[in-house]
Write a structure and sequence with these properties.
By secondary structure, the chain is of the alpha+beta class. It is built from four helices and nine strands. It has two domains: 51 residues, no CATH class; 125 residues, no CATH class. The strands form two sheets. Strands 3-4-5-6-7-8-9 form a seven-stranded antiparallel sheet, covered by helices on one side. The chain has a two-stranded antiparallel sheet with strand order 1-2.
């Protein structure tokens, strides 16, 4: 699934999650056939799906969240949406390590939509990046990383720091941050 398709799917998932619904895609459906094969189901029915019990070591490791707020945090997440509109996405192919205090990517890509002529029609610019997660905290008994740092190169080195926080008046936390100045 390419980044643009994934961004659109992420936006759809956000809207569905807000409505208390999940999107179930038929196993083995081709990416183009997914729209036709998708079925909306109440979130409660998703609870009936068989779940794999977490391994004890994995259960103690912090998760990372993205635009779904406190829902669906993942250990060794393959992607992290920094923009809830799908315009900034981190794709992590491999993690160098993931411990109880920090995590660091081995291979990651920062995808940034240029939004030209608009964000739906724009193309993604990709940058090799390093992702670092740190400052483990706990929410409802689940440890999570509350800080994220990205390092990449675009006309010289760039570094961004983010914190997992809720904007004033908002209910769902997101990654809040920006460039770090030397």
């Amino acid at each position: 699934m390419n980044i643009t398709t994934r961004a659109a799917a992420g936006l759809a998932a956000i809207g569905l999650a807000a409505a208390g619904l999940t999107l179930a895609i038929a196993p083995g459906a081709a990416p183009r056939a997914q729209t036709a094969a998708a079925v909306l189901t109440p979130a409660a029915s998703a609870a009936r799906a068989p779940r794999t019990a977490p391994q004890p070591a994995e259960a103690r490791r912090p998760v990372v969240h993205d635009c779904l707020g406190w829902r669906q945090g993942q250990v060794r997440a393959p992607s992290i949406a920094l923009s809830c509109f799908g315009s900034v996405i981190l794709t992590i192919k491999a993690w160098k390590y993931w411990t109880g205090t920090s995590a660091r990517s081995a291979t990651a890509t920062l995808g940034v939509d240029n939004c030209k002529p608009d964000c739906v029609s724009g193309t993604f610019r990709r940058y090799a990046a390093t992702v670092v997660l740190y400052r483990a905290r706990s929410h409802d008994g689940t440890p999570y990383f509350s800080r994220l740092r990205i390092q990449y190169r675009h006309h010289g080195p760039r570094r961004y720091n983010f914190r997992w926080a809720t904007y004033p008046g908002a209910r769902i936390p997101v990654w809040v941050g920006g460039p770090t100045h030397p």
